[in-house]
Amino acid sequence: MKTTAEQQVKTINDAKAPQKPKKRSQWAEVWRRLKRNKMAMFGLVILIVIILTAIFADFIAPHSYREQNLRNINQPPSAEHILGTDDLGRDVFSRIIYGSRVSLQVGLVAVGISIIAGGSLGAIAGYYGGKLDNIIMRIMDVFLAIPQILLAIAIVSAFGGGLFKVMIAVGISSIPTYARIVRASVITIKEQEFIEAARAIGANDFRIISKHIIPNSMAPIIVQGTLGVAGAILSAAGLSFIGLGIEPPTPEWGAMLSNGRHIIRTAPHVATFPGVAIMITIFSLNLLGDGLRDALDPRLKQ
After folding, report:
1. I need a labelling partner for 246 at 20 to 30 A (CA). Which of 126, 188, 221, 234 fits?
2. Choice among 3-17, 54-68, 132-146 with the minimum mean pLDDT
3. What is the mean pLDDT of the chain?
4. Bridge-partner residues for 85, per DSSP?
5. Alpha-carbon gap, residue 28 to 24, rounded angstroms
6. pLDDT at 9 over 50
7. For residue 267, what are the contacts with CB-CB under 8 A and spacing of at least 6?
8. Which CATH class is domain 36-56+90-297?
9. Nearest to 255 by CA among 157, 162, 148
10. Phi and psi dihedrals of 54, rounded to 5?
11. Ramachandran area for residue 241 (φ above 0: left; ψ -120 to 50: alpha; else beta)
């Protein structure tokens, strides 16, 4: 009976004892801090809407982006064409919807190329140091001496336009930025104790870089990648605006903006709405990028 009574008292005391809060994972903590940033969440919601619009463009767009009607040229917004028509009678709203696919595709693929190539070069330079670091970073300095948009223009001019070549050009022009960011992170991380422990148990350099250093360098890469998508979309729009980007009739916001500039006084909607689409997309990406930067900053942990 005594043992049973002691067990009951212990059970009651355990129930009254304060429970230790469960430790959140790193990414759960980042998400918690990101949710507290209202502007970042606002940008995330806008970006999700744009992504869903691009995915379901076939169901959202009321017309085909190729459909022309020369009897309905440069018509203002109406019930049939809610954003009006362009100089070939095509529905502006439908072309903006389909254009979101192209712009997001260019942004994501170009940033992917930059992260893979620049991240690899930066990780190698930062990990090994010495002459190899000096050679790689001096090459990156040469690329950094050329403005990104001019480098992209030079690449597209040399190899021609088209969606694939634009993505390659924009991606190559951004490689030095990611190389420097990753190099700085690797130099900081490679002297940590867990890296020394990995070396002590016989891990080779490739495993240390891929399994330990790169995952711990993801925070600045994610932030720069989010902001880099915005820059890539702007660069692609700029190339299309000057006639070096996506070839018609593929809808692309920069090309639509360029097509409407010569009729901006008589049909301002042709250039205005693609410009607004670019502005909203870049705005949402910048808001999200700023929020991620704050959420991933360890100095702001609470």
Report:
1. 221
2. 3-17
3. 82
4. 91
5. 6
6. no
7. 74, 76, 84, 86, 87, 260
8. mainly alpha
9. 162
10. -65, -40
11. alpha
